[in-house]
Protein 1
Amino acid sequence: MGLMISPIHIFPNKQKLAQAVAGQSIDMLRQSIAAHGNAIWVLAGGSTPDAAYQIIADQYLKAVDWSKVTFIMGDERIAPLDSPDSNWHIAHQLLLQYIPQATLLRPISDQPAEVAAAQYNAVLNTLPKTNNGYPRFDLVWLGMGEDGHTLSLFPGHSDAGQNDHLVIPVHDSPKPPGDRITLAYQALAGAGQCMIMVTGSSKAAAVKQVQAGADLPIVTAARIPKNTVWYLDEAAGKGV
Ligand code: 6PG
């Protein structure tokens, strides 16, 4: 095993992984609502979470008092709001449109990245904070790119320069589109449960690098929340 970050769950395929992530996420939301009276969920961009979003929309709409759940997006591309490049647009199509009673804190991501980042930074600063002064993100979903990036934090692109912001602009994303906003690492300092979802053979090399202790954004991010669990399908976890 030996992953730098564990525990880790490996599933035969993406659908089984999505089923587990969906069910465990619903449990986390209900625990947060019981503990705090509400739950804050940081959604993941990219395509990996699609199946889990769909499963929640299909099977769990009645499992949670969604009026007590606040949704935010961990990172967002600068694009028209109805663009297929918009992470929020995808999550809205698959899940959010079915739970209008939730608090949907969408980034204004059809603005220049500096404007969108400043606006979202201000929004996140209004959220309940943990005793270390960071927003209480009860549940955080993260994906991982083939290069070990997560959110829109890419290898070799430091966010250190903006270390007093929760949300920062990105202009040179190696993964198109180039302009984005993203949570900075320290924004995860108030995170409770983090679920990292990695599927597909294209990610297997990066998973091996994580296992070998490489200094990758996903490893830096994974260490910050109180509790991080990795969910891999067999294709991504080959050789783990
Ligand atoms: C984004 C995502 C990004 C994503 C990974 C994995 O906006 O692109 O936030 O960090 O999670 O690139 O993407 P896939 O799930 O599509 O492989």
Protein 2
Amino acid sequence: MNKALLIVCLAFSLIARAAAPDSVYLFSYSTSKNNNKNGLHFAWSRDRETWHEIGSEFAFLRSDYGRWDTEKRMIDPYLMMGGDNLWHCVWALNEHDPVFAHASSPDLINWNRQTYNYVSPLDGCLKPVIDYYQGNYTVIYAVNSGKYYNVSTHDFKSYTPSTQIASYAYPSTSVIIHLAGGNAKGQLHRVAWSDVEKLIKAFENKKYRNTRNAENSSGDAQRFAGLKEVTATIDLYPERARPISDLLMGVFFEDINYAADGGLYAELVQNRDFEYTQQDKLGRDANWNASYAWKVKGDDLEFKIDSAKPLHQNNFHYATVSTTKAGAKIINTGFDGISIKRGEKYDFTFFANSAAKTSLRVLLTGRNGQTLASSAVTISGSAWKKYSAVMTAGMDDDSAQLEIEPVTAGVFSMDLVSLFPQKTFRNRKNGLRADLAQTIADMRPRFVRFPGGCVAHGDGLGNIYRWKNTIGALQQRVPQRNLWGYHQTAGLGYFEYFQFCEDIGAAPVPVVAAGVPCQNSGVGGAGQQGGIPIWEMDEYVQEVLDLIEYANGDAKTKWGKLRADAGHPKPFNLKYIGIGNEDLITDVFEERFAMIYKAVKEKHPEITVIGTVGPFYEGTDYNEGWALANRLNVPVVDEHYYVSPGWMIYNQDFYDGYNRNGSKVYLGEYAAHLPGRPNNLETALAEALYLTGVERNGDVVSMASYAPLLAKEKHTQWNPDLIYFNNSQVKPTVGYQVQKLYGIHSGTKYFPSLINVSEHKEEVRNRLAFSAVRDSSSGDVILKMVNLLPVGTKTKINLRGLPLKDSKALKIELTGNPQDKDARPKESSIEIKDQFDLEILPYSFVVIRIKTSS
Ligand code: AHR
């Protein structure tokens, strides 16, 4: 235990023991502050007169129901000790849903999974209270009309139907207590003093950890005032080398921040299918409709959206254009303009029909209206047909637009209007933007996870990412609302994801929903209580099995044939599949996860399933998720945590105590977050420092991916990200440099080492980190050192007989001011021998690559 915490605890226990009562009053309550989102609080008293709040507004339990912005509310919690020696808490969630929440706890500190229980009538569920009698719990609640009802249960899982009761039967067991923060309504309990002591310790502990985790470089001048250069000795133990995962460094791709359409997917026409709808943005943008990004220039041209004779039932809308005379144009403005490069060829394609022959000019025009490229297309026939033209750009322009100009009067319809550069990544048709894809490939990721994130499990059942909707001809793919508030064409679909993985030599790691939508869903029921109906689950399970056949099946199988038809007869060599994404671990989740997991395990034992353990490094979902993974022997689980640099500094040993024989970990989403959410040298160094611990535990942590990967400037919903971009530039961050250095300089064996630092203070010692790995394919040994201190570190490295092939080693150094956003690694060559000195600059990450002879 840390010294400061020890002193707090000792002082506390001395005071407490001096006059410790046997039992005290405990008051449980919530307040309406922060729209009722502050959770369950406690206060204690010896005499019911003087009350001591355990932390002001400190939450011992929070509601997990519904969306972050509007829900997650705990209204009128009611707490009681049950006949099963567990504390039971029920609470109202909002003013309208006919649902109450329940959670139980053995100690009021660790809480079991929450359930959200639907009741009738459909008139809200307010002020729920619990009554207990001989093994039976009755939950009594009010509804908006003023009537009262109850439901009964033995286990808080299955309930009797609601029964109306008289209003006088509603128990008035809650009391109002005057606290320092104001009057609060809640329940009084008589509990052992030791129970309250534990609550106080839990609060103090959390407070202490929060203070430590909040440390960042802005306080370094004060924190390290007077600190002189530190010295360190590092002894390597190559003879104790142990294997680590050869898949450790990968990428997490999610269609967030316009990462797909308008981003990695090279399509240049926005809303090419006229399928943008108000629903994409939940009605929040009146202009976001089927003609978004399209406009008309000139007179005597009517442009309207039709749906009478669609190109495909999945692509319902199309545009019909009528002109009485030539001269006007229909324009697509692209995604904030279209970036065109001189001398490059662009494929224009569209589906069109026209009863009479119609001639069109297709143009790319620059920001000043000048023509950059042009071509001609003639449409004839009233059936939908695909037309194409190739245009070569005469000039660069990052704000071009696509213009379609009828040369003759008449009427025609068009859909799937597309413009692709011929130079896509690896020149694939329907391919990826070459510069962005190359920037990802440069990180040498061993795997690519897709399509998310929250996008994988979706906002409500109807929004779950269904892989079958994203394959085949573009017109048959099903576009949908992207839960990050825009439109998803599915042009970048499962085939393209698999192809990209193959192109960059990374293992594909698709993540499918575990039969439940995002825990923060606000559509179609809140939270994950809206799991896929159990009677539809067989079909859903089959869909997951079909995905494996699509990826790996013989070209003669039903799904393997579709892959072959798309141009890839050979299997994609799928080995991993993620089921679920940081889901709430509820009964609804568990039932569905187990169904999918068991079916995949039975039918495809060759596939490694990756389960999920919630969105944090602790708490109910983490505990329940791990317990479930252990029960089911899930081979790998996906952990997520976005944390402060301070958390990374003080938790480098996070995986040291993990079970070496249990499920492996995929650290699927992580990043260091500072206030204001920059991606700067400080966050990058914190990640580099934490990754030394991940490498050390590379026998348990088999995969890791920073999140999110991509973000388009001006369209970013989440910061920080690894690679920012606009239409013509790619802007990798400092964090990217760290990921790339780890990707390129990864190893397959870990060399334990002993580090001695001249300063023993925790805040100094923990800001220095080291790891050593050996890459079996090159035979090179790679040392990584991080110094997050404002002073340099003089290091003596003892390689202890490592057979050196060369007296020179490659040194790569990333250093600067913590706030730097443009620090870049610098390479040099250094002299090394069995024992050598290395100066590690303040705020720096150093990689030394050594050639060895065995
Ligand atoms: O990475 C951004 C989001 O963070 C992911 O979609 C989600 O899984 C997590 O909450």
